[in-house]
Amino acid sequence: MDGGLITQKVTIVLQTLGLCTIPLMLVNDFTVARSSRRLGLALLTLTLVLSSSLVALFIVHWQLDAVIDTKEMSITNRIEFDAAHRRYNQSTTVQWIAAVLYLPLAVHSWRVTDSRTPAP
Length: 120
Hints:
Layout: H1 2-35, H2 37-66, E1 68-69, E2 74-75, H3 78-116
Antiparallel strand pairs: 1-2
Helix pairs in contact: 1-2, 1-3, 2-3
């Protein structure tokens, strides 16, 4: 169970860092949208998917915390834990897919935006 408790602490940090990136992504999305509405909307859609999955991760993390006894280092309800853990894995999968799509799309959108910006 030690590994699960370490994972529990690390995921809180990762989720918090993810929360900090959302405003930066939104700034990028709206900046790109001024130059290319289609690319901006695509980025914004992925940001909303990422944000939704992050909210789901916080909720599921809370549900997992409810069935973990940190003092006894045990799981108090295995069935609820397994169900919540599956939801957690599904949410992280959605988040990773959206992030893997977002990054190359962001780079492409920057190239498009830069090519449309007149040189000084």
